[in-house]
C-alpha cells in the first residue's frame, strides 16, 4: 500500500521516497515507491507529472492501493529518490476541479439533478447533468458559483464515520464502500471525492461556463477555471478587439457590425447577379439567328453563370454552345449540345489541353490548361463562331 502524501498536503511539491519495484513496460518503466506526492488518475482528475530521481514521470495509476508511476527511464530498486511534481499542472487541475465542484453543487441543488459525468480535458472541463438547464439560467448559475470565490469560502476535507455519513447530504456518482472522503466548499457543495483541492475558493480565481449543449437528454456544460479562464478571456478579448478594429467599432459591437457587413454583401451579390443576367441576355440577343455552334470567352464567371449563359445561347436556336472563363493558369468551361455529343468535345480536349471534367451527352463541364489562341483554333476548326 503506497502512502499517499498528496492527501497530507495538497500543496507539497517535493518529497523523498524509496524505490520498491521497477519493471520494464511497453511505454517505459513502472516504478512503485513506499510513498508518493504524485496523484494517480482518478475521480475525473488526470494524473500528476514531474520528475523522480532525475527521470520523467509520464503517467500515474492506482490499483488496489498501490500507486504505479510510468517513467521514461529505470530507477534502481532500493534507492532513495527525490521526486518533484509539475506544480503548475497540479495547481491548474486543483483550480479546475474545485471550481467544477462548486458549479455542480450550485446546479444540483437548484434542479435536484445529478452530475453524471466529469472530464478534465487539456482544453476545457466538461460536466454532464441529467437535467435540461435552460440557457437563460446559465448566467445566474455562473454568478452563484463565482460568489463562493468572492466570499473566499473555505474548502474542507474530512473522513466521516458511517453514522455521520448516513446523516450527511452529499453528492456522489456511485454507491461508496469503505472510508468515504468528503469535500465541501462552504454552503455551496458537499461531495464525495478523491481528488486534490484548493484550501480556499478564492484561489480558483474565476469559474466560467464557455459552452452548453443538450447531451443524452440532459445538459453538457463546458467550463474553465483559474488561469485557463483568464487565458481564454484574453484570447477572446483580443479577437473581439481585432474584429472591432477591422470594422471600426468597439470590440463588443463586432457581432452587429459583421451582421451588417453580411447583409451588405448579400445585397451587392444580388445586384451583381442582376447585372450579369442583363449582360448575358444582351450578348445572347446579338448572336445571329441560325448560328449552329457558338463559343463565348468570359472572365471571372462561376459555373452557374457559365451554364446559364450557355443555356441562353442554346435558346437562340444554336445546337452547341460553349462558355470558357479564365481561371488561374487555364480556363473553366461549360459546353452544352442538343446533338448529344458534348462528351466527344471533352474527350478530344483531353490530350492537347489536359481537359479535366465530364458530364452527360448533352452537357459537360470542367477545366483546360491552355491559352485562348489554341482554344480558338480548335473550336474554329469544329465550325464554332467565337465571341468575346
Ligand atoms: Zn471531485
Q: Which structural class do the helices and strands define?
A: alpha+beta
Small molecules bound in the structure, each named once? zinc ion
Helix content: 25-40%
Instruction: Note the quaternary state here.
Output: single chain
What is the global morphology?
elongated
Mean pLDDT: 95
Provide the β-strand percentage band: 25-35%
Number of helical segments with 4 or more residues? 9
Uncertain runs with pLDDT below 50, 5 residues or more?
none
How would you explain this protein's 3D organization?
This protein is an alpha+beta fold. The protein has four domains: 3-85, Elongation Factor Tu (Ef-tu), domain 3 (Beta Barrel), CATH 2.40.30.130; 91-238, Threonyl-tRNA Synthetase, Chain A, domain 2 (2-Layer Sandwich), CATH 3.30.980; 249-276; 287-387, Diaminopimelate Epimerase, Chain A, domain 1. It is 36% helix and 32% strand. It is built from nine helices and 21 strands. A six-stranded antiparallel β-barrel has the order 2-3-7-6-5-8. A hairpin with a 3-residue loop joins strand 12 and strand 13. The longest helix has 33 residues, at 254-286. The N and C termini lie far apart (87 Å). The model has no long low-confidence stretch (mean pLDDT 95). It binds zinc ion. Zinc ion (ZN) binds next to helix 2.
In short:
By secondary structure, the protein is α+β, with helices and mostly antiparallel strands.
Detail the topology: elements first, then pairings:
Blueprint: E1 3-4, H1 5-8, E2 14-25, E3 28-33, E4 35-36, E5 50-52, E6 55-63, E7 66-71, E8 80-85, H2 87-111, E9 115-120, E10 125-129, H3 138-150, E11 155-158, H4 162-167, E12 182-185, E13 189-192, E14 207-215, E15 218-225, H5 226-247, H6 254-286, E16 293-299, H7 303-315, E17 320-327, E18 330-337, H8 342-353, E19 356-360, E20 363-368, H9 372-381, E21 385-387
Parallel strand pairs: 1-4, 16-17, 16-21
Antiparallel strand pairs: 2-3, 2-8, 3-7, 5-6, 5-8, 6-7, 9-10, 10-15, 11-12, 12-13, 14-15, 17-18, 18-20, 19-20
Helix pairs in contact: 2-3, 6-7
The structure holds zinc ion (ZN).
Zinc ion binds next to helix 2.
Amino acid at each position: 500500500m503506497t502512502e499517499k502524501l498528496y492527501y497530507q498536503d495538497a500543496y507539497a511539491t517535493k518529497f523523498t521516497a524509496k524505490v520498491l519495484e521497477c519493471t520494464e513496460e511497453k511505454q517505459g518503466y513502472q516504478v512503485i515507491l513506499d510513498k508518493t506526492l504524485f496523484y494517480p488518475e482518478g475521480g475525473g482528475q488526470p494524473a500528476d507529472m514531474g520528475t523522480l530521481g532525475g527521470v520523467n514521470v509520464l503517467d500515474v495509476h492506482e490499483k488496489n492501493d498501490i500507486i504505479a508511476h510510468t517513467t521514461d527511464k529505470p530507477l534502481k530498486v532500493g534507492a532513495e529518490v527525490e521526486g518533484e511534481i509539475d506544480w503548475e499542472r497540479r495547481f491548474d487541475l486543483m483550480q479546475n476541479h474545485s471550481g467544477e465542484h462548486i458549479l455542480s453543487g450550485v446546479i444540483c441543488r437548484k434542479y435536484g439533478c445529478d452530475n453524471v459525468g466529469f472530464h478534465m480535458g487539456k482544453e476545457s472541463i466538461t460536466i454532464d447533468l441529467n437535467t435540461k438547464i435552460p440557457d437563460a439560467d446559465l448566467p445566474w448559475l455562473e454568478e452563484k458559483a463565482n460568489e463562493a470565490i468572492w466570499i473566499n469560502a473555505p474548502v474542507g476535507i474530512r473522513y466521516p464515520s458511517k453514522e455521520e455519513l448516513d446523516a450527511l447530504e452529499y453528492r456522489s456518482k456511485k454507491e461508496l464502500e469503505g472510508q468515504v472522503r468528503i469535500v465541501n466548499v462552504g454552503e455551496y457543495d458537499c461531495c464525495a471525492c478523491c481528488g486534490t483541492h484548493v484550501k480556499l475558493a478564492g484561489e480558483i480565481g474565476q469559474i466560467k461556463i464557455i459552452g452548453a449543449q443538450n447531451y443524452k437528454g440532459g445538459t453538457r456544460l463546458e467550463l474553465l477555471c483559474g488561469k485557463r479562464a483568464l487565458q481564454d478571456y484574453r484570447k477572446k478579448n483580443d479577437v473581439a478587439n481585432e474584429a472591432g478594429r477591422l470594422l471600426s467599432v468597439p470590440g463588443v459591437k463586432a457581432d452587429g457590425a459583421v451582421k451588417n457587413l453580411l447583409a451588405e454583401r448579400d445585397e451587392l451579390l444580388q445586384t451583381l447577379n442582376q447585372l450579369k443576367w442583363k449582360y448575358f441576355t444582351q450578348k445572347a440577343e446579338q448572336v445571329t439567328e441560325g448560328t449552329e455552334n457558338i463559343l463565348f470567352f468570359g472572365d471571372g464567371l462561376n459555373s452557374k453563370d457559365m451554364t446559364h449563359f450557355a443555356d441562353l445561347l442554346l435558346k437562340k436556336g444554336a445546337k452547341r454552345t460553349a462558355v470558357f472563363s479564365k481561371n488561374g493558369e487555364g480556363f473553366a468551361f461549360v459546353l452544352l449540345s442538343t446533338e448529344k455529343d458534348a462528351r466527344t468535345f471533352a474527350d478530344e480536349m483531353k490530350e492537347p489541353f489536359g481537359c479535366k471534367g465530364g458530364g452527360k451527352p448533352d452537357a459537360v463541364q470542367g477545366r483546360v490548361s491552355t491559352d485562348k489562341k489554341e482554344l480558338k483554333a480548335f473550336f474554329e476548326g469544329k465550325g464554332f463562331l467565337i465571341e468575346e
